[in-house]
């Protein structure tokens, strides 16, 4: 018997109630939101439930929404895959302006790198992570470059000529 979206939704709402919500089909991925303080419980349930069997973490990433209210400034998105049924799901947890969420590196070892990368670029603190430090940027950086407040260009650069980037003033 194929794993249906309604089966996933029913099991989750039965177990977690109002902590899981906004279920919807987005193209070929069933998605929903969770309260951020329930991330480890929900993900562990999805992995260990004998019917659901979401044993593979495909991706974990951060998003910055600077125009949202203060409790929805950041989000962590998890993509899980059930290989038995070839079923994929997306889980989103919104965070406030000082973002932190519990690590899932004890549930999926592969999340170690992904959480470090998300911290490096977005500044999202993964509580309990065994080694949360920069992974791609320089250790000396004091900012998180994927945040929307980070400038897209270095205004101090002298090696650029705006003419090559289509930013010239009117022709004389």
From TrEMBL:
Annotated region Disordered: where? 149-172
Could you list this entry's UniProt keywords, alphabetically sorted. Answer: Cell membrane, Membrane, NAD, Quinone, Translocase, Transport
Which EC numbers characterise this protein's activity in its record? 7.1.1.-
Q: Which Pfam families match?
A: Complex1_30kDa (PF00329)
The NADH:ubiquinone oxidoreductase 30kDa subunit domain covers 33-154
Which InterPro entries does the record cross-reference, listed alphabetically? NADH_DH_suC, NADH_quin_OxRdtase_su_C/D-like, NADH_UbQ_OxRdtase_30kDa_su, NADH_UbQ_OxRdtase_CS
Q: Which family does it belong to?
A: Belongs to the complex I 30 kDa subunit family.
Main subcellular location: membrane
Q: Where is the composition biased (Basic and acidic residues)?
A: 149-165
UniProt-recorded name of the protein: NADH-quinone oxidoreductase subunit C
Q: State the annotated membrane topology for this chain.
A: Peripheral membrane protein
Key word NAD present in the record? Answer: yes
Catalytic activity of the protein: a quinone + NADH + 5 H(+)(in) = a quinol + NAD(+) + 4 H(+)(out)
Q: Provide the assembly information.
A: NDH-1 is composed of 14 different subunits. Subunits NuoB, C, D, E, F, and G constitute the peripheral sector of the complex.
Its job: NDH-1 shuttles electrons from NADH, via FMN and iron-sulfur (Fe-S) centers, to quinones in the respiratory chain. The immediate electron acceptor for the enzyme in this species is believed to be a menaquinone. Couples the redox reaction to proton translocation (for every two electrons transferred, four hydrogen ions are translocated across the cytoplasmic membrane), and thus conserves the redox energy in a proton gradient.
HAMAP family in the record: NDH1_NuoC (MF_01357)
Q: Where is the signal peptide?
A: none
- Give the top-rank taxon of the lineage listed in the UniProt record for this protein: Bacteria
Location in the cell: Cell membrane
């Amino acid at each position: 018997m194929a794993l249906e979206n309604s089966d996933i939704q029913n099991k989750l709402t039965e177990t977690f109630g109002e902590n899981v919500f906004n279920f919807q089909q987005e193209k070929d991925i069933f998605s929903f939101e969770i309260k951020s303080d329930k991330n480890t419980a929900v993900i562990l349930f999805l992995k260990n439930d004998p019917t659901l069997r979401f044993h593979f973490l495909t991706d974990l990433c951060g998003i910055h929404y600077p125009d949202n209210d203060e409790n929805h400034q950041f989000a962590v998105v998890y993509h899980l895959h059930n290989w038995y049924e070839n079923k994929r799901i997306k889980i989103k947890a919104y965070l406030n302006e000082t973002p932190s969420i519990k690590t899932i590196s004890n549930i999926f070892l592969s999340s170690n790198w992904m959480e470090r990368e998300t911290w490096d670029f977005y500044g999202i603190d993964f509580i309990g992570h065994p080694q949360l430090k920069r992974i791609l940027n320089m250790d000396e950086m004091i900012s998180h470059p994927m945040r929307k407040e980070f400038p897209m260009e270095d205004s101090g650069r002298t090696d650029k000529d705006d003419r090559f980037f289509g930013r010239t003033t009117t022709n004389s």
